[in-house]
């Protein structure tokens, strides 16, 4: 029977001549520390001589002193103990001395010991105990101090040993992990790159099949993979392989996932590092790590270097609000710019970076020759959302009636991360209800919870507040249903959710541009809640705080950014480059500022008066809708269609009625309570 070498863990092994040899144990610092500790304990616990036996002063006084068996009495001042030495001929009188000893007790002693309260009191008691004894036979106490040389030595050396031990331990720990691609944790390697390296042997289970949607972005990065796999196909015609590509898009759209797919598909070394990993408290560390990263990349070319959240070091130079108090980030950026330009034309190293704040990046970083391509990873459209649902629904146990098309229409404006959250939340809701499969209603409840929050059915709301909420939401619903360009309300509830006392779901139209008429209709619908309160109750509440904030921002954008004001004109004071972020002056005069304020106020007031007029013209339907909402607490688009009729603006609404869209409009709530659209 053959033996497995890996199972031979015995300290004995055979030498060349077949004889058994004992492998010497490996000693390191931990062995040394252990031996020191054992020696210390042994020296303190082992009995190098005979220890005196514990006794009491009464026994010493009544037996030993009275029978004149005591030879010496030694008082130890610092320990407040008394050691008693017996005469040699008297040892046999005390058999307890032989109980704990294999041999006869030491003749030298001490033989007994006992504690005392104070030295003066003991001296008086000793004199009284020897009153009847002649002065010649009396025992005079000796006084001494116990010296613990070993303990004093340990107390002196221990702090230094502890400091040295901690120093050795820290440096030992920091020196570990120096393998891999990154330059390890040794303190002397603090300037080394921390990038994780995924090579051909790394098990990366993500590929392009796992990236749903993002068709255009995926096509761009697929071409980058082709550059690395077949570079001669492009260079033989005189072309140059792009040096870098920047993934730009909102959070949760799949930028990092796309980079992981590139690592899984490229079959070349892949360096992954976050922008914050370059930033360190030590001066010059960031630039040193950049140099080390690119040095490793050149050695393993062809390869890909991925820097996630590059805005951590790529912020535009000279715009630091701290007025140059710390330029370590700028030094790191300067080194990055230098290294990206230092590559040979076809070195086979491609830089991928991701950010959701491309507007603040330095222009030198964005120019051709560094990041040649900007790949925009936008929020998914209807078809892409359907593909994303197909990916995230695979591991779930679903009702066969679940339709990905229906779910995709449910979630306009959702990112890939949001869709993943919807699928996970629906599974949790189904499990909470002890279901065996996930049904359609579980997905609807998950979307409602993600948007509006969890229902608070036990929240105490007075009847008057509930009525105000109902008429407020009915105002939004009425105007949104009757205006052509407003988002039609499809579901509204007055059951409290999250911090809000109610929530409404609208069907936003997915469009690329928005006209002035569309924005005015949306503003009018947003102000419908405040208008309904004033018309119905003759007073207003704090429930319209979020509505007013929204329409104010929208009106300011219309006047000062989109040029939709006749008096202000076709001008835009928005600086897309971000250079005005730290300026102390407005890009317009005080007179223009007053004109902008007046135009913003006029837009809002006109929309508010229009909202009140629409509600007055449809007062009966508005009241009926509010009463129905008070009765049911939840109403749908069918109820609005029954009261106001179909929305006939020259386009079909059949699809709209089937959808519960994911945008909300908040209802009135308590004072000082924050609101979110």
From the alpha carbons, calculate the radius of gyration and give it in angstroms: 42 Å
Distance between the termini: 75 Å
Indicate the overall shape. elongated
> DSSP helix count?
23
The low-pLDDT segments are 1-27, 45-49, 177-186, 652-677
Write down how many β-strands occur, each being a DSSP E stretch of 2 or more residues. 17
Strand content: 5-15%
CATH architecture heading of the largest domain:
Up-down Bundle
Largest sheet: 6 strands, mixed
In which range does the helix fraction lie?
Answer: 40-55%
User: Order of strands across the widest beta sheet?
Assistant: 8-10-11-12-9-13
Write down the CATH topology of the largest domain. Methane Monooxygenase Hydroxylase, Chain G, domain 1
Whole-number count of domains: 5
Give the class from helix and strand content and strand pairing. Answer: alpha/beta
CATH top level class name of the largest domain: Mainly Alpha
Organism: Marinifilum caeruleilacunae
Keywords: ATP-binding, Cell membrane, Hydrolase, Membrane, Metal-binding, Metalloprotease, Nucleotide-binding, Protease, Transmembrane, Transmembrane helix, Zinc
Subcellular location: Cell membrane
Cofactor: Zn(2+)
């Amino acid at each position: 029977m053959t033996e497995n070498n890996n199972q031979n863990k015995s300290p004995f092994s055979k030498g060349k001549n077949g004889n058994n040899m004992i492998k010497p144990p490996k000693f390191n610092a931990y062995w040394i520390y252990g031996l020191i500790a054992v020696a210390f304990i042994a020296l303190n616990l082992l009995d190098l001589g005979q220890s005196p036996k514990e006794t009491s002063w009464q026994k010493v006084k009544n037996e030993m002193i009275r029978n004149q068996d005591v030879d010496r009495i030694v008082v130890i001042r610092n320990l407040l103990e008394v050691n008693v030495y017996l005469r040699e001929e008297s040892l046999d009188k005390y058999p307890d001395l032989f109980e704990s000893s294999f041999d006869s007790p030491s003749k030298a002693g001490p033989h007994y010991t006992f504690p005392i309260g104070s030295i003066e009191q003991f001296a008086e008691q000793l004199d009284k105990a020897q009153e009847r004894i002649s002065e010649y036979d009396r025992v005079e106490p000796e006084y001494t101090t116990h010296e613990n040389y070993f303990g004093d030595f340990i107390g002196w050396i221990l702090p230094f040993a502890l400091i040295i031990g901690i120093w050795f331990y820290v440096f030992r720990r920091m020196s570990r992990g120096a393998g891999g691609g990154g330059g390890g944790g040794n303190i002397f390697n603090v300037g080394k790159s921390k990038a994780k390296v995924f090579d051909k042997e790394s098990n990366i289970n993500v590929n392009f099949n796992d990236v749903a949607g993002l068709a255009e972005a995926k096509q761009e990065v697929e071409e980058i993979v082709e550059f690395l796999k077949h570079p001669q196909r492009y260079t033989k015609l005189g072309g140059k392989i792009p040096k870098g590509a920047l993934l730009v898009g909102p959070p949760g759209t799949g930028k990092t996932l796309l980079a992981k797919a590139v690592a899984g598909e490229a079959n070349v070394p892949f360096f992954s590092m976050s922008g914050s990993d370059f930033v360190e408290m030590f001066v010059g560390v960031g630039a040193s790590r950049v140099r080390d990263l690119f040095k490793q990349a050149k050695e393993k070319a062809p390869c890909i270097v991925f820097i996630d959240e590059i805005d951590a070091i790529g912020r535009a130079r000279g715009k630091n609000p701290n007025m140059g108090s710390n330029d370590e980030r700028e030094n790191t950026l300067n080194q990055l710019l230098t290294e990206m330009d230092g590559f040979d034309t076809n070195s086979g190293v491609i830089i991928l970076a991701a950010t959701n704040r491309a507007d603040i990046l330095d222009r030198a970083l964005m120019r051709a020759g560094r990041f040649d391509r900007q790949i925009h990873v936008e929020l998914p459209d209807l078809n892409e959302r359907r593909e994303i649902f197909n990916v995230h629904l695979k591991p779930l146990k679903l009702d066969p009636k679940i339709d990905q098309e229906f779910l995709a229409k449910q979630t306009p404006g959702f990112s890939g991360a949001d869709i993943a959250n919807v699928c996970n939340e629906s599974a949790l809701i189904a499990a909470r209800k002890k279901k065996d499969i996930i049904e359609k209603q579980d997905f609807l409840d998950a979307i409602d919870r993600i948007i509006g929050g969890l229902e608070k059915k036990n929240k105490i709301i007075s009847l008057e507040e509930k009525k105000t909420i109902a008429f407020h939401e009915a105002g939004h619903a009425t105007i949104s249903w009757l205006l052509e360009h407003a988002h039609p309300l499809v579901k509204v509830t007055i059951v409290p959710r999250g911090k809000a006392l109610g929530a409404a779901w609208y069907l936003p139209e997915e469009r690329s541009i928005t006209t002035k008429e569309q924005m005015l209709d949306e503003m009018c619908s947003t102000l419908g809640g405040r208008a309904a309160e004033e018309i119905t109750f003759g007073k207003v509440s704090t429930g319209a705080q979020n509505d007013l904030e929204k329409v104010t921002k929208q009106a300011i954008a219309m006047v000062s950014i989109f040029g939709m004001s006749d008096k202000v004109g076709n001008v835009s004071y928005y600086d897309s480059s971000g250079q005005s972020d730290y300026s102390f002056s407005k890009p317009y005069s005080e007179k223009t500022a007053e004109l902008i304020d007046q135009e913003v106020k006029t837009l809002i007031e006109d929309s508010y008066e229009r909202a009140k007029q629409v509600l007055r013209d449809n007062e009966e339907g508005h009241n009926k809708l509010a009463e129905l909402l008070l009765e049911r607490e939840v109403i749908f688009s069918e109820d609005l269609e029954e009261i106001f009729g179909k929305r006939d603006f020259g386009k079909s609404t059949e699809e709209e009625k089937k959808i519960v869209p994911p945008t909300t409009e908040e209802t009135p709530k308590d004072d000082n309570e924050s609101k979110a659209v």
